[in-house]
Specification:
Largest sheet: 7 strands, mixed
Number of helices: 30
Strand content: 15-25%
Helix content: 25-40%
Distance between the termini: 63 Å
Structural class: alpha+beta
Number of strands: 35
Shape: globular
RNA sequence: GCCGGGGUGGUGGAACGGCAGACACGCACGCCUCAAGAGCGUGUAAUCGCAUAGAUUGUGAGAGUUCGAAUCUCUCCCCCGGCACCA
């Protein structure tokens, strides 16, 4: 029989663009979000288009996420897989500065470039619902969120020591400072005193921590978040200033936080941080000079402009040093006077910036005490040493000694007893503190959403602010939100003169400023634009000024997933909440950045896939913003991502890809040469997806060959579609389905691909066997075998499988074909190899039928009959261990 | 220092109590071809050996549990990532 078709060779350069355009024309991957029965929101972290284009690392992440989405779709879910650009922010601005262009121009270009590159990767994105964070239609809502934070008392202004990057000329959040250096440019970060906007994320510390138990996230990300929140439970203890200095000091108590209240009796001194305000209130006249010298010396050591020297000096700084303030306080437990020191090992900004020194049970305190000859008193029995010859602090558990009424109690078993006793005695109270700090929002840069706030000096002078308006009053009364009144009255104190821009006037558009470069003065470039700044006060109508800082990029990305499903291209202002734009007051009702119905239906996100580098930044902020929106009654869920999977990092030739190293791989050339399918497979086959991989040029060719093999195999089966399925083939099919399905479920893509390869190998092997028996038929691959192969392969190689599927005569896309299921009976082998061991050492296998595999008698007899076993069984074995279906072990 | 994740052929990686090295890359040899490429086939942990006979050793090092350990437990070393004087 002549072949019906001329076999066409596999040419990705033709079929890939063809199917991409078909998919897009048919809006195949743009589900009707209103009608979906089984919504599945498959999200991946959107890229920030700051550089020359999409790099292989983006492609790696997106491919892995897309495979998951395609698999879910074939399992019958209505998958929504959106894509957008995190194009606002410092990354993009820095790139614009580098190439000496305006960010607006750069963004136009990168947007086009990124989207066309993303098209070429063959991901099933919904191209009708893209978003860009610099789009005014988007950032009006970023600003809206800021305003809600303000109105609910979660955004406040404070003069604070902030991290200042002398190269980026802006402040940085704590999270953006890595080992004292700027996350982006590696400059040593300075401390500056600036008035800034903060979000009170610390109010949510407990929930951010406790909710981690409820979500299905990669464990290491949860651990990172737990560490970052850093909750510790203990007590706040009050130390009264001793009477002899009380007169000359401006404070009468010193409070400190401790996780070890059990060691209170062992507190022999106190230590405060060098940059704490306590230094001023607790230093006596006599010590003023010494203290001031010490502070100066500490400032020199931690001075930022030392470049690489800074690191060395900082590590020298690890040695404990200190100075006596002249002040004594009273240990409430034993009424002893103890000295107050200043030392560099106490960090500011945590707890009360004071620490109780318990040298016997804290290594740092021990070093301090040794250096300054301070008393060491053990309060936990550590068995061996006496206090005098203690070599290091004993930080373990044990029985309490030298501690009055507490003697005999056990630490940590009696923690609560000790804390209660502490409270009853009036020495202090139970307390929890957190490592987490409030989120610093202000950035003195250009390329971001202007913070939508207005400052009125006249109102400020009167002590007025938005918090005294009718709207604020209504909110407190109408909302029924717990603590809102408290939050608001608390915030009102620091908010004098401040009003949010009226919500119906959003967005506060970012003006085009020719010289957008950072100024370094601590003010944003927006401060140059008088037209932008000058505005009437929404409260009293007098002349007022707009806030000129923009918000942190992380605010842009903290809510984008809420927006995607509600994006409607070409109809941007169609959704109900945008009625705001209308002049009519009646229509100006609810205003939300999303469609409520659709949001109810589609959120939270079912699967979020992204890099582990965002464990504490983006992922924490997104959770916080979502929780806040939930509390304000806008969302019916409080965790945005039901499941999060962290993919590994794609590196290049053993090192991290980075522009400075010049080893950034751009996928375009590879797609051109081999096609996106080959590149996708290559990337996913490298190593486990959660582990990352090393991109090397070798290997891509091999993957291309494999695609060609699949192509030929299926092409041949098309011309022999009458071929009926054999028992052997059927077993192969079902085993392959089982293997690939299980590996996909665990996102073990490298294994899934090797499973497909094994399946192809077995089919070919079977085919060549068949050819020998029946030389007239060219090919022995049944239709079922070929179609199953295509389906299993479809998530990985979407274009090629679509083409072949179409050639097989299917009208519907393969990506909507139902995922194959396996028959559990058919995956069981007909014959089983049982390994035979003698004294635990492998000597060979015996092959038995499946139903004999559990029968010890049969297996043992068979095994004994073989020479390779018999020769070791010189005497009757002492013991025979039989593991049904697996192994038999003769112990001689 | 603390918390994660690792350490398996020339390379990427499989196996995660029961035949270590699946699947690939690379390499070698062969077939096909005028030739090249493509394709196909064979081999490929190490050592001994003519051997596609057989044997020994082998999963960072050392101990342990077990009939049996790459897999479980302990101690140590090294690499990668995160946090880092958080009281």
């Amino acid at each position: 029989m002549a072949a019906k078709k001329v076999t066409v060779s596999y040419n990705p350069a033709v079929i890939e663009p063809k199917w991409q355009s078909v998919w897009q024309k048919q809006k195949l991957f743009s589900p009707d979000l209103g009608k979906s029965k089984k919504p599945y929101y498959n999200l991946m972290m959107f890229p920030y288009p700051s550089a020359e284009g999409l790099h292989a690392g983006n492609m790696y992440a997106f491919t892995g996420a897309d495979i998951w989405g395609r698999y879910q779709r074939m399992k019958g879910n209505d998958v929504f897989e959106p894509m957008g650009l995190d194009g606002f922010g410092i990354h993009s601005e820095n790139y614009a500065i580098k190439i000496n262009e305006h960010p607006t121009e750069v963004s136009k270009r990168t947007e086009e470039r990124f989207y066309s590159q993303l098209q070429a990767t063959g991901n099933a994105f919904d191209w009708t619902r893209t978003l860009e964070t610099y789009d005014p239609d988007y950032y009006r809502w970023t600003q809206w969120i800021f305003i809600q934070m303000f109105k609910h008392g979660l955004a406040y202004r404070q003069k604070a020591k902030v991290n200042w990057c002398p190269s980026c000329l802006t402040v940085l959040a704590d999270e953006q400072v890595i080992a004292g250096e700027c996350e982006r440019c590696k400059s040593v970060v300075e401390q500056r005193d600036l008035e800034q906007w903060f979000f009170k994320i610390t109010d949510y510390a407990d929930r951010l921590l406790d909710n981690l138990e409820k979500i299905n996230w990669t464990e290491k990300i949860k651990i990172a978040q737990r560490n970052w929140i850093g909750r510790s439970y203990g007590a706040e203890v009050k130390f009264k200033v001793a009477s002899r200095e009380a007169k000359q000091l401006t404070t009468d108590t010193l409070t400190c936080f401790t996780t070890r209240p059990d060691t209170l009796y062992g507190t022999t001194f106190m230590v405060i941080a060098p940059d704490s305000p306590l230094v001023v209130t607790l230093t006596t006249e006599a010590q003023k000079e010494v203290v001031s010298d010490y502070i100066k010396q500490q400032q020199t050591i931690s001075a930022p402009n030392l470049g690489s020297q800074g690191e060395t000096l900082r590590s020298q700084n690890q040695d404990k040093s200190g100075v006596f303030t002249g002040a004594y306080v009273v240990n409430p437990a034993n009424n002893k006077d103890i000295p107050v020191y200043i030392s560099n090992y106490v960090v500011s900004g945590y707890g009360s910036e004071a620490v109780m020194g318990v040298p016997a049970h804290d290594q740092r305190d021990f070093e301090m005490a040794s250096k300054y000859n301070l008393d060491i008193v053990s309060t936990i029995k550590s068995e061996k040493e006496t206090d005098q010859d203690l070599q290091e602090a004993y930080v373990g558990e044990g029985t309490i000694i030298n501690s009055g009424d507490w003697n005999g109690l056990s630490w940590p078993r009696d923690r609560e007893k000790i804390l209660s006793s502490l409270e009853e005695n009036g020495w202090g109270k139970k307390m929890t503190t957190y490592h987490l700090r409030d989120w610093l929002i202000s950035r003195q840069r250009y390329w971001g959403p202007p913070i939508p706030m207005i400052y009125c000096q006249a109102c400020a002078d009167r002590g007025d602010s938005w918090f005294i308006t009718d709207e604020a009053e209504r909110m407190v009364e109408g909302n029924g939100i717990k603590n809102l009144k408290f939050e608001i009255s608390n915030s009102a104190a620091s908010a004098a003169g401040w009003y949010p821009a009226p919500e119906d006037q959003l967005p506060v558009e970012l003006p085009y400023i020719e010289n957008y470069r950072p100024t370094g003065t601590g003010k944003s470039p927006l401060a140059q634009d008088e037209k932008f700044i000058n505005v009437k006060c929404p409260g009293c109508g007098s002349d007022a000024r707009r806030e000129t800082d923009v918000s942190d990029t992380f605010l842009d990305s903290a809510w984008y997933f809420l927006r995607y499903p509600s994006v409607t291209k070409n109809l941007k202002f169609k959704i109900s909440n945008l009625k705001l734009k209308s002049k009519s007051k009646e229509e100006n009702v609810e205003s939300l950045p999303w469609d409520e119905e659709i949001t109810k239906h589609w959120l939270p996100v079912d699967m979020y896939i992204g890099g582990a580098e965002h464990s504490v930044l983006h992922l924490m902020y997104s959770r916080f913003v979502t929780m806040a929106l939930h509390d304000w009654g806008h969302l019916d869920f409080e965790e945005p991502f039901t499941r999060f999977f962290a993919h590994g990092l794609l590196i290049c030739e053993g090192t991290k890809m980075s522009k400075s190293k010049g080893n950034v791989i751009v996928p375009d050339a590879y797609i051109k040469k081999y096609g996106a399918d080959t590149l996708r497979l290559y990337l996913m086959f490298l190593s486990p997806f959660n582990q990352g991989g090393d991109f090397r040029d070798t290997g891509m060719e091999g993957m291309f060959k494999f695609l060609n093999r699949v192509w030929r195999l299926v092409q041949k089966s098309i011309s022999n579609s009458q071929f009926s399925i054999s028992n052997e083939q059927e077993r192969l099919i079902h085993k392959a389905i089982k293997r690939v399905t299980e590996d996909l479920e665990g996102l073990r893509y490298n294994r899934a691909i090797s499973g497909i390869m094994e399946y192809v190998n077995s089919l070919e092997e079977l085919n060549s066997k068949f050819k020998i028996q029946n030389s007239k038929v060219e090919n022995g691959i049944s239709k079922e075998a070929g179609e199953t192969l295509l389906k299993l392969f479809a998530p990985f190689a979407p274009h090629m499988t679509e083409e072949l599927w179409n050639e097989l005569g299917h009208k519907e896309s393969i990506h909507f074909a139902p995922w194959p299921e396996y028959d559990p009976v058919l995956v069981i082998d007909e014959v089983v190899s049982i390994s035979v061991q003698v004294n635990g050492k492998y000597r060979g296998v015996v092959v038995v039928s499946a139903d004999e595999a559990n029968n010890q008698k049969v297996v043992e007899e068979r095994a004994r009959s073989f020479e390779f076993v018999a020769k070791y069984l010189t005497s009757e074995p002492k013991k025979v261990i039989f593991v049904p279906g697996k192994t038999i072990n003769f112990v001689v």
